[in-house]
């Protein structure tokens, strides 16, 4: 299979030049090892995987001998399987002024992140890789950061093909796991079934100590029903046959594993808010579609929850854009006691950018009616708009635009 260039490559190489160790984490199968092996091969860096039983045993039993055998600079894959290496890596970093000594990959788990944090605090840069974005699938990587002003959106639109609802929902239904791209519908269903059994359930038991595997499977399916909605822990607990406390703990497990992303409500003290409950989004919409039993792109695209899945897709693309880009941003949603709602509030460079998300190709001006709720914020309100299926950016008013979904 031909290598697909990843957006994180730019940031990874920049951080590698500045840090002695860089670790790439993320959910299983998103392409961490493939990306780093591609970059390592390009520069002739040595590679060792902790999936190799002999090397793993050596790393665990005699880390000193391991690093005599494999001298840095080195790429160590699946390092969570040999946490004994963290201490000697710390020693290497402390005794050398060289940068880019260690490239590490690790599937996310509470235990690994704690061990890495305890041993390598201040020495390692941790980056997160998600499954493939729409931009990566298209091979389009804009040089300029995402800017919501109309001139910037128009300039950005020159790089992309026209927005197409079928293309978008193909990506939503299939998901972005690299291994899934060439599979048909039957093979895709078996891939996700295997992914859940082989990776998610095993990690839930081995890394997170979950004994009730039947309840956790039910919890996974129940969570997919809240895709793009406020989390209701009581309903999740009831559907899974567990307590509310356990449901909250299992949600944290899914976050740690890189399966879900919780979007918190906007927390500005100057603005009153009605809800403290987060909204739930799956990091890969294909997994959510499988768990929700949507068996084809068309049934999902025309189904009752298509708007929620489209919102999940848009939030996921924003998450990737801001994680991989030069300019960081925080994301929240807004909902107040007057029932005014804004799907997304992006805070960047001290300004708030209100974003509504609609599956329509031509949403009307009422879509931005709630944006006025931010006028009492202590931060300036910058340009925003409606992410939708419009083919071209188009002004709604002086500050806001229709934003084609493929531009984010």
Can you describe this structure in just a few lines?
41% of the residues lie in helices and 17% in strands. Helix 5 links the parallel strand 3 (74-77) and strand 4 (102-107).
Topology of this protein?
Layout: H1 8-18, E1 21-26, H2 32-43, E2 46-49, H3 53-61, H4 63-69, E3 74-77, H5 86-94, E4 102-107, H6 110-120, E5 124-128, H7 134-138, H8 150-157, H9 165-174, H10 185-206, H11 213-224, E6 229-230, H12 233-240, H13 244-256, E7 260-263, E8 279-282, H14 285-291, H15 297-301, H16 306-324, E9 330-335, E10 341-348, E11 351-357, E12 384-388, E13 394-395, E14 400-404
Parallel strand pairs: 1-4, 1-5, 2-3, 3-4, 11-12, 12-14
Antiparallel strand pairs: 6-8, 7-8, 9-10, 10-11, 13-14
Helix pairs in contact: 3-4, 5-6, 9-14, 11-12, 11-14, 12-13
